[in-house]
Amino acid sequence: MRLPDFRRYVTARALFSIATQIQGVVVAWQIFKLTNDPLALGLIGLAEAIPSITVSLYAGHVADSVRRKRIVVPAVLVLVLCAFTLWWLAHPLQEALLERGRLNLRALHATVVWPLYLVIFVSGIARGFLSPALFAFMPQLLPDRTHLPNAITWSSTTWQASAVLGPAVGGLLITYLGIEFAYGVDSVMEVLALLFFVSIASRELPPIEGERLGLAESITSGIKFIFSNQLVLAALSLDMFAVLFGGAVALLPFFAANVLHSPGSFGSLRAAPAVGSVLMAIFLTFSPLKKGAGRKMLWAVAGFGAATVAFALSRNIYLSFFLLFLTGVFDAVSVIVRSTLVHTYTPEYMKGRVSAVNSIFIGSSNEIGSFESGAAAKAMGTVPSVVFGGLMTMGIVAFTAWRADQLRKLEMGAGSK
């Protein structure tokens, strides 16, 4: 944190993360209030995942071919414009909420809901380019690789802290100041993040090892790298399926209003996983995972699944908050182990392409997981769908522990497997 450019990077990422968390909370709450449909909540994730996945592999190639700052700044600028568009749409949306009883469902979707999905779709394209560029840019801000494990933990801790503040602030803004004001705060914070990103000095691309690849080979090289490394592949797959099946966050507006009968608790429930994550990340900053890191990751993901099942069955607001808190604690272990593995085993000149595949595995699985949660809730009921997802997560942990011996035996000492 004494490095000026890394400090600017962390500040920009914190502002941006808080802003996008506020935005996500407001959009989810708006769409749920307009439609009262859990599937509509799931479609939010799908609207972002489809464009993000579509551009990810090409975006990874671009991140390894162009100075990373030249990608980060335009991508954040597009997201700033999306935030201002949501703010601009907020007033007619507020009026639509008041007129909801006089609008038929088709008119409601055509005039109000679909414009929100369109903005989310555009933001998904920008995020598809931003994610690999940020992943590859961060290590370039460090003087050498000895700082990398600590930088990863600080970056993760900052993001998790932002994820604590964002939903809580978003919930409070919705409750007391309205959606227009909430979108205004989101927009201003994204502008500040953009200014901090602009202030970071650009860096040359790392030297390429071996022959320069053609476009098609370059795009697919990240996939080939991951699938040739059992350790990285197992960690990514485990995290991906846990997020895909075990996420209850997308359905929290429904749980708050209809299961726990406490709509005002939505912001607190939404922040609970991030509270757990940031506290565990801070703990791991001072007590890094080394001995038995692979086994601890497996147990953590299994604990994530078990806490998800228990949350689905809970009818007590305080117990539900605690169980969501535990999902964040367990998730932090998995995230830090996975991030450290990918950064450690990936050559610098390939980090954009490998990060793009990582985004498809992990980042987009959050959005697709939201859609899966919404679709499963529509098909089998909200509570049974979350129970099913948690049980699936525990089953995937058992399968991974059986098949991926390198991950099971992983120690986090330098160079060890």
Terminal CA distance reads 29 Å
The secondary-structure class comes to: mainly alpha
| Unreliable sequence segments | none
* Percent helix range: over 70%
Rounded to the nearest angstrom, the radius of gyration is 21 Å
Q: Could you state the order of secondary-structure elements as H and E? A: HHHHHHHHHHHHHHH
Written description of the protein model:
The chain has 417 residues and is mainly α. It folds into 2 domains: 1-203, MFS general substrate transporter like domains (Growth Hormone, Chain: A), CATH 1.20.1250; 213-416, Growth Hormone, Chain: A, CATH 1.20.1250.20. It contains 15 helices and no strands.
Short summary:
By secondary structure, the protein is mainly alpha-helical. 82% of the residues lie in helices and 0% in strands.
SSE blueprint:
Layout: H1 4-35, H2 38-63, H3 69-99, H4 105-140, H5 148-176, H6 179-199, H7 215-227, H8 230-246, H9 252-259, H10 266-286, H11 293-313, H12 317-345, H13 351-380, H14 382-403, H15 405-408
Q: What structural keywords apply?
A:
single chain, 417 residues, mainly alpha, Growth Hormone, Chain: A, 15 helices, 0% strand, globular, transmembrane, transmembrane helix
